[in-house]
Amino acid sequence: MSQLIQGTQALTVPLTVPLPLTHPIYHILLVLAMGERHGYGLRRAIVASTEGRMRVGNGSLYRSLDVLLTAGLIGETRGVIDDALAPRRLFRLTDLGERIARAETERLVQLIAVAQRTPRLRSDGPEGARGGESAGRVLLSIDAKGIP
Asked: How many domains does the chain have?
């Protein structure tokens, strides 16, 4: 079992969930927090929510979905959506998945706070100014092999 601390409350999570969460898993949870989606809808929503900076390939997406299903962070149903002829696998966030997403978000907020207090990493400091506008815009492309 792994533990993720959220404030004063520790969450015990099955080892099948890598902590801290990987980028694809975290983004899947974020998208599902907005509502139920099918696989292709998840991919499109991740690209849209990251303004094209992150793309998840089919292999990474479905491997991540299997991990999340096994851990009980998401659930699956079958249903017709968007006038599709055949039923699709629809994924939804579970209560546990929501708790893990909230805890991971808090962990990232704390990590960003540390980075913002670090002069070389601040965008308004002398070091950050040298990075230019492109320093903050990075395209993440995740394929079946993981992060390049």
From this structure: 1
For the segment 53-69, what is each residue's pLDDT rounded down to a tens digit? 999 999 999 999 999 99
The two most distant CA atoms of the chain are separated, in Å, by 57
* Range(s) of the domain holding residue 54: 2-112
Q: Is the pLDDT of residue 38 over 60?
A: yes
Answer yes or no: pTM beyond 0.90.
no
In residues, how long is the chain? 148
- Domain-located, residue 25: yes
The CA distances from residue 9 to 58, 94, 142, in Å, are 35, 19, 32
Tokens of residue 40, six digits: 């292709």
State both tokens at 25: 């898993």
Q: pLDDT: is 119 or 14 the higher one?
A: 119
Structure token digits, residue 131: 């990075």
